[in-house]
Prior knowledge:
By secondary structure, the protein is α/β, with parallel strands linked by helices. Helices cover 46% and strands 12% of the residues. It has a 6-stranded mixed beta sheet with strand order 8-7-2-1-9-10, with helices on both faces.
Amino acid sequence: MSASAQDPSHSAPPADAHHEWLSERLAHYLGRPVPGDAPFADYGLDSVAALSLYGDIEEEFGPLIEPGEVWTYPTLDALARCMADRDTRRDGTSVRAAFVFTGQGSQHEGMTTGLYLHSTGYRSHLDEAAEELRPYTKESVVDLILSGDPRIHLTGFTQPALFAVEYALARTLQDAGVQPVAVLGHGIGEFAAATVAGALTLADAAKLVALRGAFMQYLPVGGGMTATCAAPFEASELIADEPEVGIAAINAARATVLSGSVEALTRVEARLAQQGLRSRRLTVTHAFHSPLMQPMLAKFASVVRRLPGGAPRLPFYSTVHGRLVNEPLYGPYWTEQITAPVRFADAARALLGQQSPTHVVEIGPRVVLTPFLNRMGSDAALRCFPVCRGPQSDAVDLAGVISALDAGPLAAVLAGA
């Protein structure tokens, strides 16, 4: 694996202009030059100076960083590199790709088989993730995928398999030279996003994902989910008298997913129809992100309380909070994530507005989120596309994605294509 794939903060050397400007401002606040690789705090940078430095950056370059990111990128080299990567004033041709990881429901039998058979890079990373999962799943998720086993739709297998696939897809793009400027994950996709961002190790993420899926699978049946064309406020009014139904996800202005008991959802769907709002029952085994998940929370919290966690080393847009987060993703975050609504629309809009990506790549086994992202983008030049379009995606399709992102060489990633 390349060094850049292992370290999300690794990138090309910072642009001279950003580095020189930042060096001068730091020397102004600290009264002495700061070496490029020395932590600011070791040279006396305090919170007041950090906020003043943030204001200087905002005044000179516009919205490149958030105030807390002075500490997220705590050296001159790291912060200058971050600024250079995000500064869209340089030329208009640089690719700035954001990775958005799909959630549960995107899985399908045999997913990414074509990639596994014909991409040595993808095969290596999927095998790597499968080995980290094996102590918990007891069988390889690779075998589960390649055999077309219908158990891929059982939550206890779905979540580990999706995590492995998304981790492998992202690492394959990184090996080809596509370094994301930011990451975002929908539901179970947050675990792959956090791993790519460096907030979770692969081993810790594999453990959490496997246990999460197993705990959910053994919850009582009788739950369901319904996709609606209702706005969040409309959905809230319709479920006000249904304590067993909650808002599971807000994917767009008028794309709200409800989750709860089947009986209660049936009543809510009738009310939606009366108001002329379309709805569609989703094919799921449980009511994810709903009050019906409560019985597993204490058990899961016990498991994750010893999780070391870490702060993301890439901009991480949380769909729990609907915004950029810089704080470490400790156990309580992953426990809250189980029942919290997926605030995808808020997080995605924040990412698009703050990071100004030129491309958004949906990381998952088939298209789910790309249509929402296309509608959100206010910049006509923004390109949103999936790394996998569906069951037939293979190494040739991957080559096209890498080419669209101006990355390569393809020979280092593809075998036999």
